[in-house]
Design brief:
Number of strands: 0
Distance between the termini: 42 Å
Largest sheet: none
Number of helices: 19
Mean pLDDT: 85
Order of helices and strands: HHHHHHHHHHHHHHHHHHH
Oligomer: single chain
Strand content: under 5%
Helix content: over 70%
Shape: globular
């Protein structure tokens, strides 16, 4: 697995035919043996970040699945995980920005994987409303915060719980999509191993690329630590060990191999990107700053990928100047954190708390939480598929 050509197109194409048999078998059994009411209760737990999936109401089979799924791999390095967590806490706001402006849009350039996200966004909404996508952006943000924060990957930590819940939800989604006559011949399996792995690398390797694009200096030790943290997360959400790169160099090669294998324009990718841009424009404190998200996406992605998902760079010299000023402000913020110890300590301690409050407040104010009606409709579809 250490050869330069290890991530061949044949290997990647074969990985699109594999999903997560362990989680799929568990969910298939649940769908067949549980009533709609019982399934509803389980999915409520999956979507509630404050309740661990392993509470006393679940049966022995569920507990056995959870016990096995929540164990860290034998190769997990606690020291590297701690360094990866510290890296995230120090750069949290900048990482969040890169995730929305580079990592997620890059996954939307993968036209087959984008179709899965688009289909799940349309699970219960056929009116053209983009809110389901926005809700999933917030869910993704909360997941990343949980797995990367201090002690998130400790025993029964928030990150471990979030990863196991995501793994189980993905199995429910596959069940749902197959009932919807998913086109396996065209797209292969939904949420397959290549899609899994590509997403994890977009959250790690592409984040580091984006930070470096801002002029932030990142040591090899920091890169490898952050990649290792996401390697552990990848294991917890069901990525096969053979697709988990051992260091940043391997991760960079694999991330771009997957992107090159899949990249292409699609209506789904463009619609997902529009939802992402709309979401970020809504976060801007001033209407005059609405130009920023799309122009920053273009800056971080480059012309080729931007064109695939319908992102355009403003021709206004004034706006380009403002983008330049914004980039310099990010660079200055990072310089202060690296050169003033007090600011660095404050950032590591408080960045995750601030990000969590922002996410929770946005969900509350925007009415984006999963409602009982939405959940009940999805449970009915899953039961129908099982029968």
């Amino acid at each position: 697995m250490n050869k330069p050509n290890q991530w061949s197109e044949e290997l990647l194409e074969a990985s699109r035919l594999r999903t997560d048999p362990f989680a799929d078998a568990f969910v298939a059994d649940l769908a067949k043996t549980k009533t709609a009411h019982e399934l509803y209760g389980i999915m409520r737990v999956l979507l509630d970040e404050y309740v661990w999936f392993g509470h006393e109401k679940l049966d022995n089979e569920s507990h056995q699945f959870l016990d096995k799924a929540s164990k860290l791999p034998s190769w997990a390095d606690p020291e590297l995980i701690k360094k990866g967590e510290a890296f995230f806490c120090l750069h949290g706001p900048e990482i969040g920005m890169v995730l929305l402006m580079k990592s997620l849009p890059a996954t939307y350039c993968c036209w087959k994987g984008a179709e899965v996200v688009h289909a799940t966004g349309r699970m219960t909404d056929h009116s053209g409303n983009l809110k389901p996508f926005t809700r999933r952006l917030m869910e993704t943000s909360k997941f990343i915060l949980n797995v990367c924060s201090i002690d998130g990957l400790s025993e029964n930590g928030k990150g471990v719980q979030s990863a196991v819940k995501v793994r189980t939800l993905h199995a429910f989604v596959r069940n749902f999509l197959h009932d919807k006559k998913w086109d396996t011949e065209k797209y292969q399996e939904p949420i397959n191993q290549e899609d899994y792995c590509g997403t994890m690398l977009s959250f790690s390797v592409f984040v580091i690329e984006g930070l470096e694009r801002f002029g932030i200096r990142i040591s090899e030790e920091e890169k490898n630590a952050y990649l290792h943290l996401w390697r552990v997360v990848g294991h917890l959400v069901g990525v096969e060990d053979q697709l988990l790169p051992k260091n940043y160099k391997e991760g960079h090669e694999l991330g771009h191999a997957i992107l090159n294998h899949q990249k292409g324009a699609s209506d789904s990718g463009k619609e997902l990107t529009k939802a992402c841009v709309d979401f970020m424009e809504g976060l801007m404190p001033l209407k005059a700053m609405k130009f920023l998200p799309e122009n920053m996406m273009f800056y971080l992605l480059g012309p080729e990928l931007s064109q695939m998902i319908g992102i355009k760079k403003s021709k206004s010299l004034f706006i380009q100047f403002l983008v330049f000023i914004f980039i310099k402000c990010v660079h200055l913020t990072e310089w202060l954190k690296h050169h003033i110890p007090f600011i660095k300590r404050w950032a590591i301690r408080n960045n995750p708390k601030i990000m969590d409050k922002i996410i929770q407040q946005f969900i509350k104010q925007s009415g984006l939480a999963f409602t009982p009606k939405i959940l009940a409709e999805e449970v009915e579809v899953i039961k129908k598929a099982a029968n």
